[in-house]
Amino acid sequence: MDFFTVDLLRDIASGIAFAAGGVFLLIGTFGLVRLPDVWSRLHAAGIVDTVGAELMLIGMMIQAGFTQATVKLLLISLFLFVTSPTATHAVANAAFVAGIRPVRLRRNEAADVIGETVKKAAKS
C-alpha cells in the first residue's frame, strides 16, 4: 500500500470513531434533558458519556498514529474509563443517601436496605 491509501484509511477510521462518539454524546445530552429523574439521567450521563468520550479519544489516537501523543491519549482514555463510572456511582450513592427516589418507585427500598444492614450487623 502506498502512503496515500494508508492516510485515507486512517482518515476514514478516525472519522467513523468521531461520528459514533458524537452520536453517543448527543444521545447522552438528550437523555439528560428528557429523562424524568436523577437515576435515569445518571445512567444517560455515566454510560453514554463514557462511551462517547472513549470513541472520541480512539479517533484522536488513530489520527495521531504511533507517536507520543497516542500514549498520552491512551493514558487519558484509561483514566476516564476508570473515573467516570466511579464518579457516577458516587453521585448515585449521594442521591440515595439524600433520600431521592425514582419517580415510579412503589415502595420505600431504603427501609429494606437499612433493615438488611441491621440484620447483618446483629448476626456478626
Q: How are the elements arranged and paired?
A:
Layout: H1 3-34, H2 38-64, H3 68-97, H4 109-123
Helix pairs in contact: 1-2, 2-3
Structure in words:
By secondary structure, the chain is mainly alpha-helical. The protein has one domain (about 5-124). The chain is about 85% helix and about 0% strand. It contains 4 helices and no strands. It has helices spanning about 5-35, 40-65, 70-95, 110-124. Helix 1 runs antiparallel to helix 2 and helix 2 packs antiparallel against helix 3. The chain is elongated and about 70 Å long. The model has no long low-confidence stretch (mean pLDDT about 85).
> What low-confidence regions span 5 or more consecutive residues with pLDDT below 50?
none
- Report the C-alpha radius of gyration, rounded: 21 Å
Number of helix segments?
Answer: 4
Mean pLDDT: 85
Q: How many strands, which pairing sense, and closed or not: the largest β-sheet? A: none
Strand content: under 5%
Quick one: how many beta strands? 0
- Tell me the count of domains: 1
* Secondary structure category: mainly alpha
Q: What is the percent of helical residues? A: over 70%
Which H/E pattern describes the elements? Answer: HHHH
Distance between the termini: 68 Å
Shape: elongated
